[in-house]
Each structure stands twice: as C-alpha cells, then as structure tokens.
Amino acid sequence: MEDNRDLLEEYRSSIDNVDAALIHLLAERFRITHQVGVYKAENGLPAEDKEREAEQVKRMRELAEDAGIDPVFSEKFLRFIIEEVIRHHVEIDTDTSSD
Question: What is the CATH number of the domain that holds 32?
C-alpha cells in the first residue's frame, strides 16, 4: 500500500509542476497581450478582433485534436482567456483615452 501512495504522490507532484508551468505560460501570454492592448489603444483599433479570434479557435482545436485532448474543452479554455484579454484591452483603451 505504501508503494501505491508513493506513486500517487509522484503523480501529484508532476501535476503540480505542470500547473505551475501553465500559470507561468499564462502570465507570459498576458504580458504580451497587454502590449497588444496598448498598441491597439494607441492606434485606435478595437479591443475585439472576431477574425483573429476565429483563427485562434480553429488553430487551438486542431492542436487539441493532435494532442489527443477534447477540442471542445480547448475552445472553451481559449474563449475564457480571450474574454479576459478583451476586458484588459477595454481597460487599457479607457485608461489611454482618459490621459
């Protein structure tokens, strides 16, 4: 039974490492999308870009299928991120407009 617990702890440790990597990757993504938001605000571009979003969703679904995970899940995940990015872009635009 002890061996099983050790194995479970190894699995959990691996999951914890992957979770940490995901957070760091998301942080990097948000740093970049912040720069995009500033660019859009300074150049009078809308916060939302439906064409780009559709391209990204299509690409993520294909990547998910290739990786063996549910493409519906990947789309939901990406749309959640996109919504947050757009919210940030609107805030940046509001801040830039009020300066």
Answer: 1.20.59.10
Token pair, residue 57, equals: 């969703």
What's the gap between Cα 17 and its chain centre?
18
Exposed/middle/buried for residue 16 (C-beta within 10 Å: 0-12, 13-18, 19+): exposed
**From the CB of residue 89, how many other CB atoms can be counted at a distance below 10 Å?**
23
User: pTM of the entire structure?
Assistant: 0.85
Residue-range definition of the domain harbouring residue 12: 2-98
Provide the pLDDT confidence category of residue 99 given band limits of 50, 70 and 90: low
Q: Is 20 exposed, middle or buried (0-12, 13-18, 19+ CB in 10 A)?
A: exposed
